[in-house]
Amino acid sequence: MPAHTTQADAIAVLERYEIPLLEDLMPWLVDPQWATPSPTDACFDRVSTTIVAAPSQSLLAAKSIFEAAGMDCWILGDAIEGDSETVARVMAETALWQRRHGRLARPLCLLSGGETTVRVTGTGVGGPNAHFALTLVDALQAEPGISAIVCDTDGVDGAAEIAGAFVDADTLARAKQAGLQVEEALVQQDAHSFFQALGQSVIPGPTGTNVNDFRAILIEP
To answer: Which of 164, 168, 193, 170 shows the shortest CA–CA distance to 181?
Structure first.
């Protein structure tokens, strides 16, 4: 693949973030022979690129399965980024509105993909997908008729061999019965421990591919 950045860009990044490697790397960052090939380089004259797996394909495949089962399905986007908790609360509000005011004739599934992130400040074990699912538990507050699955398509979410988690209207009550605090798990970024204790982790093992995250929120009439 051609590079759309230059050696000067690399130097600028090292300087901006004060990374103490600039002096050691400078011989390679100023000599043109070590530059990565640009889009106009002759080495790309006979190169063609074919995408064999993409986030959009995973969402479209899921959409066909849901529709075949008699459900409506909306794809909200395949490149949604941002803070996991923030995005989860927005999607929870969307699901709640549809559940309460949408006048659904049949189940509706909200699909989305992309890569959300978590700024780690706690001491727990988690990942952006499980944290997203944990936020849904907090935001939905056991609303009947809403369930979700949130996973990384490579089977590994953050710091553990766990793809993500699934939640439903009973998750909050089961957590309280087990003595688990949703708010504390969110603060500590301990979503994997939370869902493992409930048996609601999704653990498929390595899938052999990675097309970013996969999120499905099912809303029943």
So the answer is: 193
What's the DSSP call for residue 157? B
pLDDT in tens, 86-101: 999 999 999 999 999 9
**Residue 112 per-residue DSSP state:** E
- State which amino acid sits at residue 169: A
Burial 189-214 (b: 16+ CB within 10 A, else e): bbbbbbbbbbebbbeeeeeeeebbbb
Give the Cα separation of 148 and 146 in Å (integer).
7
User: Looking at the domain 55-219, which fold is it?
Assistant: glycerate kinase, domain 1 (3.40.1480)
The 10s digit of each residue's pLDDT in 144-201 is: 999 999 999 999 998 789 999 999 999 999 999 999 999 999 999 999 999 999 999 9
Pairing relationship of beta strands 146-152 and 213-219 according to DSSP bridges: antiparallel
Indicate the domain borders of the chain: 7-44, 55-219
Provide the token pair at 160. Answer: 């553990």
CA dihedral 97, 101, 106, 111 (to 10 degrees): -20
